[in-house]
Write a structure and sequence with these properties.
358 residues, alpha/beta, Rossmann fold, Dihydrodipicolinate Reductase, domain 2, binds nicotinamide-adenine-dinucleotide
Length: 358
Amino acid sequence: MKLAVIGCGYWGPNLVRNFVQSNKIRECICCDLDQKRLARMKSLYPSVEVISDYKELLRAPDLDAVAIATPVRFHHPIAKEFLLHGKHVFIEKPLTHSYETSLELVKLADEKDKVLMVGHTFEYTAAVNKIKEIIESGELGKILYISCIRVNLGLIQSDINVVWDLAPHDISTIIYIIGETPISVNSQGKAHFKHNIEDVATTTLNFKNGLIAFIHSSWLDPNKIRRTTIVGSRRMLVYDDIEPQEKIKIYDKGVAVPPYYDTFAEFQFSYRYGDIHSPRIDDYEPLKKECDHFLTCCQKGVSPLSDGYSGLRVVSILEAANKSIKLSGKSVQIQGTKLLNRRSKNNGNGLLIANGWN
Ligand SMILES: NC(=O)c1ccc[n+]([C@@H]2O[C@H](COP(=O)([O-])OP(=O)(O)OC[C@H]3O[C@@H](n4cnc5c(N)ncnc54)[C@H](O)[C@@H]3O)[C@@H](O)[C@H]2O)c1
């Protein structure tokens, strides 16, 4: 395949590295408005062609696909043009800056029968897939709540707030492991440094079955933390993505209400403090898996695990979170939940969900 990566700033070079190394790629083009970024890409990968105006690529008949890693506000206009010209499109998270523009891309990709994939990287990690397997096995019991912390110092963005920057990872992970889309969102945030760009926020996702998930996102924290805690009725799981070895720990801890008691004095919760174990997880680069999955889907003409609908689900929640922040944390319903539970038409049977991405 011949593929172009558009946007070679901070994240784009990671995509270029994986695509250049793939045996499915015959030619890779790097596109960026900044000549310095292009010179950097050429020095790293002498075989790539470099170009500054993506419009030159629109009519290239032998170009199969593009991967977009520009700032979020450019995702939609660039992706739309390439879909209209019949190219497969991969877009970094979040899919676009609004529900309307995401929906337009989803419909366009379906109409043109082209792959539209969003870079929900965590859905391709071994740890998140292990957690999904553990939850589905029933080992944790009924999931009571989920708590995610994704904080560090920087990088304050100019076009999106911290929820749009960091929470897509947590939202896509939660929807993926639970298999459900929340029905409403509450979010509170504060902009300390840039007008209207919140740099710290807490977002709560409410699900139909009573499950609640808290997401704390911050660019203003002295420590880098990427931790998800999943509390089940039987066991509790902690996923620490910073931890090099034991990323997942399962705690045999819990609370039991006594089966019977006559007086208040007799009533006592009993707490269980059992063993802690850390399951083995495979060691591979998630981005390599993600890039390879995109290329496979383009070649086979099937819909990816993180397809356009998956991107739309996350964007609809981000948009609701933004509305809630402006309403000082009031509950905002997620729009179009029926549509959000759909998948791209060539993947209506959900086979890719059931069988993983291979
Ligand atoms: N999956 C992940 O873990 C992950 C991590 C970081 C960033 N991202 C995503 O990657 C995307 C890019 O983020 P970043 O931090 O690399 O941004 P960045 O600002 O560092 O880089 C963006 C690049 O796009 C270029 N660009 C802008 N408009 C362009 C155009 N019209 N044509 C060609 N090039 C253009 C800029 O010159 C810049 O070099 C965002 O969507 C972000 O959310 C994903």
